Amino acid sequence: MQFEKSHAAFQKAKRLIPGGVNSPARAFGAVGGQPLFIARGEGAYLYDIDGNCFIDYVASWGPMILGHAHPEVVAAVESAVRRGTSFGAPTEAETELAELIVEAFPSIERVRLVNSGTEAAMSAIRLARAYTGRDLIVKFAGNYHGHVDSLLVAAGSSATTLGVPSSPGVTAGTAKDTLVLEYNDVVGLEEAFAQWGSQIAAVIVEPVAGNMGVVKAQADFRQALRELTSQHGALLIFDEVITGFRVCYGGAQTLFGIQPDLTILGKILGGGLPIGAYGGRADIMDQMLPSGKVFQAGTLSGNPLATAAGIATLKVLRQTNPYPYLEQLSTRLAVGLEQAAKEAEIPVCIGWFGSMMTLFFTSEPVVDWPSARRCNTQQYAQYFWGMLRRGVYLPCSQFEALFISAAHTPDHIDTTITAAKQVMKELKQR
Ligand code: KE4
Q1: 25 lines ligand 1 (CB under 6 A)
Q2: What is the pTM for the complete model shown?
Q3: Helix-strand-coil percent breakdown of the chain, rounded to 5?
Q4: Is 144 a catalytic residue?
């Protein structure tokens, strides 16, 4: 397998784009080597510009739950684009997508569409501060909510993978209003509320973390999140940018039976086109201009192509209910990967929830950022390249999730497991 055209493309890109990429998560910084340039995707496959074919488990970092170029999504976007790409005026498609969101998430009475998960997080934070009249925001180490300044304090996605847990350019004045606690640490959360409770505007959390690898919020932690925020008049914000429509149609909150005050969404919601959303109780959301006084705006918010792709995607998910099938494939993969590691006597721990999964190269359970950080990231990098050379495209970081789509088949899973067995044997011999 050779990557000459990708290497040439990368050299050219680096002369024009910082690091040659428009998002550091794609730069292969954590696994070494150079990123592949993709020509096209189709179903469960990605094809790079050198003509190599891969079973894709990145899924554009989550959105592609139906697989690439799903015919109904393509048709919806093709139809929409012929009517124009953007108007700067309301369209019925925005209302239709809002209706699908409200129908899927009982905690959401009103929703505002934006252009990314970052914008959704940024807007939800501003709204929570305005609604409560308080400044402090609580987040958790290893959670990532996009690159808004106030949350780039121990982010858990590419910033941390690249060893930069808090970014230059974020001012001390901004960071001081953000409390960073340990995920799944009930005592730490209780202590924070005991000390700061009257000043905390909101707690924002990934109900199933995807940005330190896949780590589930444990039941006692989930209960504490809901009880402590309610007791102290703070808002609970669920970041379901990954888990929304992924772990089930109604997101993690439906599976966990918890109603957050605000939810942020993205990724699958746009079927791979740029989108984000934040929504929740009407009395909170109606604080947003023009019904209220809190400002947020966006030229392309609710864009006709993104809403067309999102509506098509959600309608296919609602009609086909792929979640039991995805669960079967995920189980098959998790069992197979564990077996491959066991045969090669490589210590691993699998973080897995629905169709999102991480193979952690460690012998201890991963329950928070400190335990995730103890993983053998060098071994993950070797595993990544061994799998890539066998036609399996995995997340280029130990601290990300792989995703299974409805386009994957048991044969794809079995091919992946066969490759993993060969790679694990190689790792053992190193
Ligand atoms: P965007 O601004 O990238 O659309 O969404 C930010 C975001 C918010 N919340 C969660 C839970 C997220 O995972 C993300 C973005 N995810 C990363 C990968 N884990 C995106 C990859 C990238 O930045 O290129």
Answers
A1: yes
A2: 0.97
A3: 45, 20, 40
A4: yes
